[in-house]
């Protein structure tokens, strides 16, 4: 990266998720074998690498890809504990907090086209509860 302009050299692309959002320092990503926090990025002629340590040689986890590859976000598996935390967040806050969209415009919110954001959250929580109950039965 050029120190003066903050731009990448021609042909070099910052690693992104499928939705086009760039991976940021501190993001938790999934490399297929596990998940880790992105601490450093390295670029080479044909692609990028992301490491869980500022020093690549000391990294335990890494993900690499070509400039056309996407990075996979780590999504924490749903659980009854997470469901309860989300319910409490809804009671104490609002739908924006539930969807992690506080301080953001509504344009990217899942509840954007619903008539009532909180009702949309309750519907989402119901779907999650049904899925969690089915998991419990199958175990």
Key features?
3 helices, four-stranded mixed beta sheet, alpha+beta, 7 strands
Low confidence ranges: none
DSSP strand content: 15-25%
Distance N to C terminus:
50 Å
- Biggest sheet details: 4 strands, mixed
Give the proportion of residues in helices.
25-40%
Mean pLDDT: 86
Q: What is the string of helix and strand elements?
A: EEEEEEEHHH
Describe this structure in words.
The chain is α+β, with helices and mostly antiparallel strands. Helices cover 28% and strands 19% of the residues. The protein has 3 helices and 7 strands; from the N terminus they run E-E-E-E-E-E-E-H-H-H. The protein has a 4-stranded mixed sheet with strand order 1-7-2-3, with no helix packed on it. The chain starts with 15 loop residues before the first strand and ends with a helix. The mean pLDDT is 86.
Quick structural gist:
The chain is of the alpha+beta class.
SSE order and pairing:
Blueprint: E1 16-17, E2 28-30, E3 35-37, E4 40-44, E5 47-51, E6 62-66, E7 70-73, H1 80-92, H2 95-98, H3 117-138
Parallel strand pairs: 1-7
Antiparallel strand pairs: 2-3, 2-7, 4-5, 5-6
Helix pairs in contact: 1-3
């Amino acid at each position: 990266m050029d120190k003066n302009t903050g731009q990448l050299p021609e042909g070099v692309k910052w690693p992104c998720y499928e939705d086009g959002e760039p991976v940021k320092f501190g993001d938790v990503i999934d490399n297929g074998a596990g998940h880790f926090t992105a601490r450093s990025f390295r670029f080479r002629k044909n692609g990028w690498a992301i490491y869980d340590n500022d020093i690549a040689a000391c990294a335990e986890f890494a993900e690499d890809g070509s400039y056309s590859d996407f990075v996979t976000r780590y999504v924490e598996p749903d659980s009854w504990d997470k469901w309860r935390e989300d319910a409490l967040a809804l009671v104490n806050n609002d739908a924006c907090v539930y969807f992690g969209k506080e301080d953001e415009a509504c344009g990217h919110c899942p509840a954007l086209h619903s008539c009532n954001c909180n009702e949309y959250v309750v519907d989402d929580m119901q779907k999650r509860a049904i899925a969690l109950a089915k998991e419990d039965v199958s175990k």
